[in-house]
Amino acid sequence: MTEHILETPEVDLAYDLLGPALADSAHRPLLMIGQPMTAAGFYTLASYFPDRTVITYDPRGLGRSVRKDGRTDNSPTVQAEDVHALITALGVGPVDMFASSGGAVTALALVAAHPGDLATLVAHEPPIIPVLPDAAAAARANAAVGEAYQAKGSFAGMAAFIALTSWKGEFTDAYFAQPPADPAMFGMPSEDDGTRDDPLLSGTSAAVTSYTPDIPALKAAPTRILIGVGEESAGVLTARTSEATAALLDTTPVVFPSHHGGFTGPDSGYPGQPEPFAAKLREVLDTQP
Predict the structure, then answer these.
(1) Which of 15, 124, 178, 289 is the most exposed place for a label (fewest CB within 10 A)?
(2) DSSP string of 180-197?
(3) Domains in the chain, ordered, with CATH?
(4) Contact between 107 and 119 (Cβ < 8 Å)
(5) For 85, which DSSP code?
(6) What are phi and psi of 231, to 5 degrees?
(7) Cα–Cα–Cα angle for 230, 30, 85, nearest 5°?
(8) Residues 60, 64, 68, CA angle at the centre, nearest 5°?
(9) In angstroms, what CA-CA distances link 54 with 39, 62, 80, 135, 277?
């Protein structure tokens, strides 16, 4: 692996190249992106593609990527422009892309704005709330995570996040009637750790979950778009957003092994099944319509 920095007026964007050199690869480069997950979250998955040049990066303001724009919010459209700048600088488009969670939202924004950048996009569990039939209630439930975090810190915020992401079905009155999630239920301490800048919990990524995909632009793009969903995610928020997005695109979701982070290895806090996940991703990328 080699580490690099792409300098732009707004960010010093850190990215990595793994596997064969770009000039030596027999396959299209494979770009793996997340949000707020950084490049390191994809190293295990990348190891299952030794025949491809894999490109990973740290989104603007996260990990090693240093912002110069004076902002702290995470925007899919802004991050899409960063990814476009990276593809352009490397001179490798169109590439294939695997995008996870908030990165999948960035990827949908990228295809809408720069349809020539990607040949195939596998967007795994994009958490875009506006596509849901219960969007208002889901947005309320999501906002409560940030409120818990701002009031009591990381452990309270993470407990609320787990409650949100493990709830199955629409967000009904039964969800909101529950008592606040107790960190102790998830093996976490209850004291306030004092942090208020977590990119997942603080509200700085609100533009990710509130993003509305440009469906006409996505349908018009030459990119083959596949929406992925984890087999263990059935009924939960990110499965529902994925299924709704796929329906708007007139496609059927591709079911992947494991859960929302099913490609992560044993060093992850919530490891998945990276080997079968990678096999499914390879199958999808190698299958042409």
Answers:
(1) 289
(2) PPPGGGGT---S------
(3) 2-128+211-286 (3.40.50.1820), 133-209 (no CATH)
(4) no
(5) H
(6) -65, -25
(7) 110
(8) 45
(9) 11, 20, 18, 35, 16
- Nearest-angstrom CA–CA distance, 138 and 127: 11
Report the b/e string of 260-278 with b at 16+ CB within 10 A: bbbbbeeeeeebbbbeebb
Tell me the average pLDDT across 266-277: 90
Place of tokens 């040949």: 119
Please tell me what DSSP assigns to residue 266.
T
What is this structure's pTM? 0.96
- How much is the pLDDT for 289? 64
- The average pLDDT across 187-212 equals 93
Quote the mean pLDDT of the chain.
Answer: 96
Helix (H/G/I), strand (E/B), else coil: 94 = coil
The answer to whether 30 and 121 are in contact (CB under 8 A) is: no
Instruction: State how far the Cα of 154 lies from the Cα of 196, in Å rounded to an integer.
Output: 8
Cα 280 to Cα 286: distance, rounded to the nearest angstrom: 10
pLDDT at 88: 98
Q: Rounded to whole angstroms, how far apart are CA atoms 165 and 102?
A: 14
Query: Which segments of the chain does DSSP mark as H helices, in order?
Result: 43-46, 76-90, 102-113, 135-152, 154-166, 173-176, 206-209, 215-220, 237-248, 274-286
- What is the distance between the alpha carbons of residues 88 and 49, in angstroms, rounded to a whole number? 23
